[in-house]
Amino acid sequence: MYDKLRKRVLEANLLLQKYDLITFTWGNVSEIDREHGVIAIKPSGVEYDEMKVEDIVLCDLEGTIIEGELKPSSDLDTHLEFYRNFPNIGGVVHTHSKWATSWAQAGLDLEPLGTTHADYFYGSISCTRLMSKSEIAGSYELETGKVIIETFKERNINPDMVPGVLVHSHGPFTWGDDCFDAVHNAVVLEECAMTAFTSKQLNPDLDKMQGELLDKHYLRKHGKNAYYGQR
Amino acid sequence: MYDKLRKRVLEANLLLQKYDLITFTWGNVSEIDREHGVIAIKPSGVEYDEMKVEDIVLCDLEGTIIEGELKPSSDLDTHLEFYRNFPNIGGVVHTHSKWATSWAQAGLDLEPLGTTHADYFYGSISCTRLMSKSEIAGSYELETGKVIIETFKERNINPDMVPGVLVHSHGPFTWGDDCFDAVHNAVVLEECAMTAFTSKQLNPDLDKMQGELLDKHYLRKHGKNAYYGQR
Amino acid sequence: MYDKLRKRVLEANLLLQKYDLITFTWGNVSEIDREHGVIAIKPSGVEYDEMKVEDIVLCDLEGTIIEGELKPSSDLDTHLEFYRNFPNIGGVVHTHSKWATSWAQAGLDLEPLGTTHADYFYGSISCTRLMSKSEIAGSYELETGKVIIETFKERNINPDMVPGVLVHSHGPFTWGDDCFDAVHNAVVLEECAMTAFTSKQLNPDLDKMQGELLDKHYLRKHGKNAYYGQR
Amino acid sequence: MYDKLRKRVLEANLLLQKYDLITFTWGNVSEIDREHGVIAIKPSGVEYDEMKVEDIVLCDLEGTIIEGELKPSSDLDTHLEFYRNFPNIGGVVHTHSKWATSWAQAGLDLEPLGTTHADYFYGSISCTRLMSKSEIAGSYELETGKVIIETFKERNINPDMVPGVLVHSHGPFTWGDDCFDAVHNAVVLEECAMTAFTSKQLNPDLDKMQGELLDKHYLRKHGKNAYYGQR
What we know:
Four copies of one chain form a homotetramer.
Chain A: H1 3-18, E1 27-33, E2 38-41, E3 57-60, E4 65-67, H2 76-85, E5 91-95, H3 98-106, H4 115-118, H5 133-137, H6 140-154, E6 164-167, E7 171-176, H7 179-202, H8 211-221
Antiparallel strand pairs in A: 1-2, 1-5, 2-3, 3-4, 5-7, 6-7
Helix pairs in contact in A: 2-6, 3-7
């Protein structure tokens, strides 16, 4: 019944390799079937070259395994926190992609510096705060998710308009309408992280791009007045 | 009748992938048939892997569609402004290539630092000024073109001798005798942007290269006294 | 009798190419059969494309050749010093991989800045001290090994928990349970070296990551309470 | 009669592509047959994908064409100056490889920072002085060669022990026993240029490596006491 979902999630996981976003097994993709409340996610620590459709694990929104012989990704609880709190998203991606991870390790927000960023992310991509000792010692992956949700709430960011975050000293998460859209955003984030690094090195005092230009590009591609692409 | 033109434009668009200048659909190439005043351009938001000859859109110099089922690139109006104002050019390329985009985001001109630059661009590659709120809110793509033309006029730059520009907070445009020449210049610009970044990091006080050396290399490859290649 | 060992070592050497860790012949992998005290190591200066199973050299822990027509890697004495002093390791890798070598040339420890590092290395990856004139003039490769061992002893580092080192003005060594694990760690080290460079450029005052997060990630993957992967 | 020489030079030119040292036609390789005083060199501005054995041009030490329908590389006069002044070399390579070119554009010597450099280059790789207006306006390619030779004489550098140079605001030349050795050195130079950039960014006050270590590594691979490889 969920073979199609599993197959999509397998394919999306393999795209992480194609787009050079992962090394070894350091990444995971999930997708949710909102109607049935079923999530499909990559198994933990399985080589991408050996992963099969039946290895993809199915669970519900509380993390109870529905189907699957293997253990789900150790980051499952972070994914679930996204699905529980961001009601419009359909897919989540986590990677340790090099440039985005560099920003996360530096503990810095990735500010919008150009139209590539603006085409996909409507403002800065936040870097979360440091986690407390008890958060780390506790249900760490769940707490990671909670810190992300807190960041969006406290900064009043709409996750549908800024579909990505940098977890401090860790790496990026992105999301989207479905798992493929989430992978797409992971690619864009990596590209923005690379060019923002270079721009900032060239011009250390560089400020965010003009708000008007951010608006223009984001709204050119999103919302009811979008006119980019074949729509 | 314009099948050959369309085919060339399709091929040139695919070269952007080959030379690693684009991610997803973030780039577009056009070419003009000056005799008939017909421009062929990439459709908007179509995947490179799926693009076919018949998807290439034909229009006139005012942007009226002559043939094509799909919408043209959303950057069409910028391309047209080039063709209307730079009478000797035959092809235009726009990309978000990483290194050139980094300079554009930094808001800095790309100064000539070495003979690679001098072989193709006779002086600095300008970064345009910030656009005004009304320019952004208005016919944005057309205004983008106008700001570029303004830059060349105010700085008294011959577009035939400096076939590229960096649009502030956005990315590069290049042009040339035809669409393949424009792609060629896009590759060179990216390479110059990468090495200039590194040179400037190594030597922050670095000034432009000697004018005599710029002259020598540019004129070794261009104009009536050129002696590079098999001519 | 040691064909399987030789074959493993050949395969592991070829992985250095696959993971883009070497140029020409600048790298070597060895593995030890602890039961018989036999070490298999790459021959010196042989092209990777031409290397065959029978070219892999076998020797004992004192470096006496047991089998093999070719001379062993000139770094053999360094490898042996590892096997003699780190009793739990089964494989050793040396490369001149670009990013790790850059840190070694800079003479700087590679501090843990994020969870990628923490997943594999439980603390800073040390850069060794400069070698003395007599150490360099003497049994240089053996002395290189001795300086590494000294570094681990003086800094009280457990080599099983920090399976890598940067040799000053030279490059990285990594090790592991077997030769494939050692290659795996070489890949991780290179990735950490790249992202640490970028993070430090973005944030020059950046300090080590939180100790609690380092603990959490390292212990999530290692030791009796590990819960990453299918165990 | 010189088919073998031409074939070697063609192959060596193609290696520049394999090792990612060139873009388009920006590079050239030559080799000399010292016995007959015949030099084979790449033709000017010919695409690498289309180059054939018969396109390789043959000339003597004064540049007089002996055989070949095409014009030789415009850098021929620089190559000849090498062959006339460095009597032990058999091959010359010129590229605009990215990292080495970045150092040349920055106008900086590439100092030895690690054993990779020391294994091939016995000391700093010089960046030449700026050329005078009359040198640039005159026989430019010949004068480029003369400035290189001058650099080696004035700094008292043995070109057999430092087989490379950075031409100011231009790019690298390397040489070697034959054309393949010269290509090999071009690859090494590029790698040293990349890691030296990164090391210097990490540690701006970084000085040259220890002289003793430079000696050890260079002499481990070169001269009568060499013990690296299968000799």
